[in-house]
Design brief:
- The chain is mainly alpha-helical and 445 residues long.
- The protein is built from 28 helices and no strands.
- The protein has helices spanning 3-12, 18-26, 30-39, 43-55, 59-71, 75-88, 91-98, 107-120, 124-131, 138-147, 154-170, 182-192, 196-208, 218-227, 231-240, 242-255, 259-271, 278-288, 292-299, 312-321, 325-331, 337-358, 362-371, 380-390, 394-401, 407-419, 423-429, 433-444.
- The longest helix is centred in the C-terminal third of the chain and has 22 residues, at 337-358.
- The two termini are 27 Å apart.
Length: 445
Amino acid sequence: MNVDDLQWQLSNLGGVLPRIVDEILERGGLAALVEAARVREDWFCAAGAVRGLCAMGEFGRAWTVVEPFAATGWQPGVRAGTEVLLRWGRVDQALELAHPQGPRENAVDAWRDYAEALVRAGRVDDAIGVLGPHLRRRRVLGALVEMTGDQECDERVLQLLAPIAAEFRRDPKQYYDDLWDVLPAQARVLERSGRADEAIRLLGADVAARRYGPQNNVEFYAELLARHGRIEKLRDLADTQRYAAVRPYVTALENLGRAGEAEAYLRDLIAAKHPGWHESTLMGLLIRQGRFDEAVKSVEHTFDDLYDENLLQATLTLLADQGLHDKALELTEGRSPEFLAENEASWLRSNRWWLMGESGRAREAIAEIEALPASEVDDRELTIAWLLAQDGRVEEAIALLRPLPGKRAATDLAELLIRQSRFTEAIAVIPDVAAQRKEKQRLWT
């Protein structure tokens, strides 16, 4: 088993896609996943097979599937193998597998995984000790907070976090990349230990002083305020930190049954032309209240915009999520000539055909596609095949997809075969990892 191939699968979603694995598992194709893990050394198939076997209490069989992956020393395989052994009750074997062996490229991840295994084994103090030397790494800080929840060791965790937080507060620019996450981490532990007031005070001072990193802490602070009913303070934050705090403020009002206040607040922001995606937030609020026509009206002035402010795509998606495909379809019509010149071929047509397929008008969509020159329709055969399947003509769709090259066509074909419970065949039509790597290399050269 080749570690480079395994890592390539994980980094590139290679092999059988996770969503295909999930569908096979949901439809009863566990045996096909087990076989694909053994024969094709497909990581996502192996992970799905392990998940399915463990759900059935078949830990011995799950270990048989994952053991070859874990034996390579590849960290995701080690992590999965450790999980199986712990659930199987083989704690000592699990800890032996999880314990990092010698220097390695992903040492921090390995020690983090080992600490999590120690917590699962009831050795929380040992786990905290293992993480101690690595706490100035952001991924480890987050792991420490996650794994010690409900372990009755918050005071010890806070003692470890306090000097790191103080270090960051003294010189945020120096520790911008690695330590910024310590501030919300400290607040989370304070909050769960019953010291929410202290968490709000500390993090509020950090936000006021703009002590945050690449992913600022304002949204976390806003949600902290919302959880503890500090609505006035949250309103003040939203007034000054609109990009990050308006949405949490609106959500908090809505959860309190004050949707009218939330709507008025958003409309005032929009009327004052304050920067931000407030139209999008207002549309979501109105849709959640079932006010679909008003939701569309609130954003329709953006639909012919040629730049980033256009909310047509977002509106189509939200309406489709509500099952309002016909209403969404209406919005694809009547667009300005300038907008159509920029967008029709690139995405508007494909969205229109998708909506038609979802609303029972697949044959009409196919006719539209076939009336256009083939060169004007991206992924023509794939789109027609999907529409054929939507129209119940699955065998015609399968026949159209079979000769098409590439992973995307193979994946679409696999989905149709899965619907017919042809699981082994579905996996077989997807190129294996070696073939996918060659295809990707050819595309890049």
